[in-house]
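quick one
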Amino acid sequence: MSLQFPKDFLWGGAVAANQLEGAYDIDGKGWSTQDVMPNGIKTPPTEVPTEDNMKLIGIDFYHRYKEDVKLFAEMGFKVFRTSIAWSRIFPKGDELEPNEKGLQFYDDLFDECHKYGIEPLVTISHYETPLHLAREYDGWVNRKLIGFYERYVRTIFTRYKSKVKYWLTFNEINSILELPFMSGGINTPREKLSKQDLYQAIHHEFVASALAVKIGHETNPDFKIGCMVLSMPIYPMTPHPNDVIKTMESDHKNTFFADVHARGYYPGYMKRFFKENGITIHFEPGDEEILKHTVDFISFSYYMSICETADPKLQIRGEGNMIGGVANPYLEASDWGWQIDPQGLRYILNAFYDRYQKPLFIVENGLGAMDQLVTNEKGEKTVEDDYRINYIKEHLIQVAEAIEDGVDLMGYTTWGCIDLVSASNAELKKRYGFIYVDRHDDGSGTLERYRKKSFYWYKDVISTNGNSLFE
Ligand code: BG6
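structure w/ 6-O-phosphono-beta-D-glucopyranose:
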């Protein structure tokens, strides 16, 4: 049997504004939550941006995007996922008028993509809430954020309606459960944040997301608007029914997010959860109707799977993408302890598709590793990153299996197609790219770009529409 990718499959790469643009206070940009997170999620935010924050300069994509987009084009990208930094468009978040220079930057960036036939895929909010909205309003806990987001969304939808077709409303929206500041701009420290406020904030995001779908379809009926969730298959640690039920309950914490986006209403298991935890979600008149504007597709990140168990003795937590969980004894892990499970990707693709029957889009997957820049026999600087090639190859083979299973998959964008600053640790030594960027955590480096071995490999994958994976 030969496995195949659909002929119009959207191959590409993904990044987020705050992790690569730099230029954190240039051309009218306001501060975002990321500008005060010099250590990612490892330490509490600082009062003001500090020089040790690698994101302030990032990889200077703001000034070098033309060179970078050209490299993406050389690999044959069909799609490029990036985000718009909300605080470039509305520096504080609550202004009435947008910042023209911020809008112009993305006009130029999208034009540059189209020059090479690359379709932009845009995340509207990727862990970069304007800081003012966090500090003055407590982020999404405050219902006013819906109005601010709506103004922002109307502005960018109108401005880019002929340049951007694919939109994602919130990056990894379920990560707010663990990371209220980074994900939801919630200033109240996590340990002081009540479940009531947390779930009310989530409700506000749901309403804002559904409003974006509604407004987007009114702005341009061709828009395809998706939600974006952090996916992490959860396996029961043993076949003991207690483990299976615990797994189901843990899973519900996450499926809640895609369920509301794809079905347009709150699932029964969450109503039970709210009752048992004394939570009452305040719905304003009209909210229920707005939620019925469901997404066109489900997009997600996939890096790893985890296990769940009801047995406290077995609850040994491993490291993991934002959420983490109980480690699986059968899997190897990356240098950062994220367990590698290509089959988990086939599993989650089937799980999503069985549940929603909506098109899917893998918008993040990849390996963060410590790369070594070397000079090859041709005298070129490169990275011999066979480990990255193997990782992506194994995952893509499972993607092809899922397509053969009948999953409707729109595309695949690898995370950090060019080296950028990591989200969880805010470090540059954790590299994901096909393109090496000469910049280091001590602030040194020329910012020069170099093609890694995986650059040529991915180019081949794209030009053969995936067939080279099976040679
Ligand atoms: C996802 C985020 O959680 O994982 C990205 O959407 C992030 O912003 C990526 O960079 C990888 O995580 P990290 O911490 O290795 O950068």
